[in-house]
Structure formats: C-alpha cells, structure tokens
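[09:14] KT: can someone run the structure on this one? pasting the chain below
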Amino acid sequence: MRTMMLQKDSVTLVTGAARGLGWGIARAFGIAGARVCVTDISDDELARCARDLAADGTNCLTYRSDVADLAECTSVVKKIVARWGRLDVVVHNAIYMPLITFEATTPEEWSRQINVGLGGLFNCLHAVWPQMKAQRGGHIIGIASGSSIRGYKEEVAYCAIKHGIEGLVKALSLEARPHNIALNTIGPGIHIKPTRITWAEYDQTPAELRAGWADPVELGKAWVWLAAQPPSRFSGYRFDAAQLVHTISREGSDFEFAAEKVTLYPDDFRARQEWYRNYTA
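[09:31] RB: done, structure tokens below
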C-alpha cells in the first residue's frame, strides 16, 4: 500500500478556505506536503485557518480575495508564482449560498451568487491558465454536490451554479488536453457542515449535531489523491470524496480503479468515459 505522493514542492490554491470544506481541503494538502495558499473574504476566519495550517507545519500563504473579481484572482496567482515559482492545483471551493426562494431572489442577489460560484471558477481558470500552460500541466478542481444533478427548493441559483460547473468542466477538459491540464469536480458524497455556518456558530453547535458532519480534513484526502494523479489520467469527471476516501482506506491509494470506488454516480462516470473515447472535434 503506497501513500499518496504529490509532486515534489507542489503548490495548491484553495478558494473559500477560511472554514468548512475548503478549510479541510487546504489542511489535507498541507499535511500531504504541499505548499498551500488559501483565500477568502473573511479576515478573522482566514486568520484562524492560517493558525491551523501553521500548526500542521504547512508552508502557507493567506490572502483576502473575492473570487468574483478577476483582477483579485489574477493578483493572487501572480503572488503565488512570485513566491513559489509555480501553481499546480487550484481548488475552487468559494460559494455564496443564501437559502431563498426564486421570488425573493433579486437580480442583484442572482448576480452575486453566479459571480462567486460559477464566475469565480472562470476567474480562477482565466488567472491560472497561462501559468499552467507554461509549466505544461496542472489540476483545476471544482466542488460538486447533489445539486450538480438535481434541483432543490430555495437553491435556484446554487443548483444553476453546480450544473454550470459540471458543464464547464466537461467542455473545457477537451480544450485543456493538449496542455496537460486536468479539470474535474469532487462532491463531498456525505453530510457535511452547512456552508453558511461560521466558525463562531460552529463552536456553539451542540456536539451531537456536529458528530453527524463528516470531518472535512479526512474528506480532503480525495482532492489530494486526484491531484496526485497524472493530469492525463482523469479530466472531465465527477468524483465523490466519501466514496473515494473509503476506497483509499480499504485498498490504498494505488487501488485497482473502478467507477464504483470513486463516485456515487458510476453510470454517469462511465457515460463520460464513453463520450470522451468517441469524441471527435
């Protein structure tokens, strides 16, 4: 059984990493040996994330940055490359997700959600694309959920974002192939802390409720595993962290691959494989 091995001196950027799943993903990369940059719009929560990363022994950077702003995304990428010389993995985790009905969704509210969730992924891609092309490879990973394939009340914009991320990943993965850049998504695949709950609220949450939420650092191992794969191996796919982490725990990181071992939606995975095999431009 081999442990997951990232590229030596690899560099990872995780957006929306001040708390929750992004925080767990960032810590998982740091524990695996990556140099990690985290961004968010909450200074206090970013500071807490930085303390946790430092306690893990992670070489890290933190920047207050709004992914809805292309100039800010570009600035972050430039600072990372200036500091560490490269950027191997971008995980776009940032999201703005108020639970509101369609009738309560103003045009301004709609735009803000779309600009963070889907626009943020575009901005990250636009900012990092020249660097990944120049270094001849990299991984860009979005966050999937049940909302990527289903609809829910009070999540009109959120579901549109998650469906949109899947479409962007499927299409751009084809254009990214010649540059050895992989695009994929990973969903939690299990119940996690609700996105809207802050650290302060989390600290006041009863222990029995928190016990029902998966450990985001443990789930983060799924993102590390995918980033440790050659970019040419998987691109355009949707994985599920809980399923993948369970497989790694049971069989090791070099497990014999099967769609059932990495996602809750193996039929979709196989359908994508068939599409890519037969696709001609």
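[09:33] KT: thanks! The chain has a mean pLDDT of 95.
[09:34] RB: yep, looked fine to me
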